[in-house]
Amino acid sequence: YAAKTQGKDAYAMFEPSMRQGFDREVMWRAELQQALQHSALHVVFQPIVTLAGRRVAGVEALARWNHPHLGVVPPDVFIPVAERAGLIGDLGLLVLRRACAEFASWPGSQTAYLSVNVSPSQMLDASFPSKVAATLYEAGLRPGQLVLEVTENALADESEVIGALRRLREFGIRIAIDDFGTGYASLRYLHRFPADIVKVDRTYVQDIARDPAAVHILGTLWQLFGAIGLTAVAEGIEDQAQAAMLMDLGCRVGQGFLYGRPGPLSAITTEPATADQS
Ligand code: C2E
Ligand code: MG
Ligand code: MG
Ligand code: MG
């Protein structure tokens, strides 16, 4: 009798939270679907620069969702929802199309590249490479102007993903391994990944000011990347001390709040910063 009551209570306590979680997921999905239908997503851009001269080498497109009530929802929240809801293919293409169109009418597109994040599940669609090619063509961009960023976990064991990356590279698009050093990729396989650029995660950059071992690790990583033909980019550079240490270690290209926060593409100029001219 007591057990039955307990069971009932346990059910009564368990059920609402479950339903809340489920409702929340359903709500997110429905709202994201609406956002896609109304193209309520936009793209902001962050410069990728040469550390010595602060020349803009590229711009990374970052998706933003402006929700009517919640404000700007960060991609770390809505990208996983889109993946679970099977919407990431549509979302990814919308972002790519937007980013390419804006980039094509930006003066810097003659000298800088466009870098766009893609989820591994997007590349499981066999027609992904041809969709990318069509999007470039519509925007009037050359394959050499585009870099696609994938996280190292995507490369760990997905042979379909590797196949898609090979096709994209044969077409002339460059591939960047994003957030390097945070996932499960083994160094043993690094040279086999079909990639051109490696973006070292900002956690490594944050460590170099306070951890001497991190300096050795980064210095060695840079030598390794050079030896296997990968161009290295340091992510999350926030102050001049980090930039100076990275330059000492042989790092030439980076990205971070020190050089510019994500924002409208029109705010990024390809002229050298005035500080460099003095
Ligand atoms: P990510 O590709 O590694 O992008 C870099 C993230 O670090 C961005 O966050 C950027 O605003 C932030 N960041 C840049 N510089 C600094 C810095 O100096 N300090 C700190 N603390 N952070 C910095 P954001 O825009 O919130 O994007 C988060 C992640 O969401 C991205 O990480 C990417 O994995 C994913 N994402 C964004 N847009 C897309 C997209 O269109 N498609 C897919 N699949 N993923 C996307
Ligand atoms: Mg990225
Ligand atoms: Mg990253
Ligand atoms: Mg990231």
Structure description:
With 278 residues, the protein is of the alpha/beta class. It has helices at residues 2-37, 75-84, 88-104, 128-139, 152-157, 159-170, 187-190, 202-207, 212-227, 240-248, 274-277, and strands spanning 41-50, 56-67, 71-73, 113-117, 146-151, 174-180, 197-200, 231-234, 253-254. An eight-stranded mixed β-barrel has the order 1-2-4-5-6-7-8-9. Helix 3 (88-104) runs parallel beside helix 4 and helix 4 (128-139) runs parallel beside helix 6. The protein is globular, with a radius of gyration of 21 Å. 34% of the residues are buried. One magnesium ion binds at residues 178-179, 199, 235. This is Bifunctional diguanylate cyclase/phosphodiesterase. Residues 25-276 form the EAL domain.
Oligomer: single chain
Total helical segments: 11
What small molecules does the structure contain? ligand C2E, magnesium ion
Run of helices and strands: HEEEHHEHEHHEHEHHEHEH
Poorly predicted spans: 1-15
Q: What percent of the residues sit in helical stretches (DSSP H or I)?
A: 40-55%
Secondary structure tally: strands: 9
Protein name: Bifunctional diguanylate cyclase/phosphodiesterase
Organism: Paractinoplanes pyxinae
Domain EAL: 25-276
What is this structure's SSE topology?
Layout: H1 2-37, E1 41-50, E2 56-67, E3 71-73, H2 75-84, H3 88-104, E4 113-117, H4 128-139, E5 146-151, H5 152-157, H6 159-170, E6 174-180, H7 187-190, E7 197-200, H8 202-207, H9 212-227, E8 231-234, H10 240-248, E9 253-254, H11 274-277
Parallel strand pairs: 2-4, 4-5, 5-6, 6-7, 7-8, 8-9
Antiparallel strand pairs: 1-2, 1-9, 2-3
Helix pairs in contact: 3-4, 4-6
Bound molecules: ligand C2E and magnesium ion (3 copies).
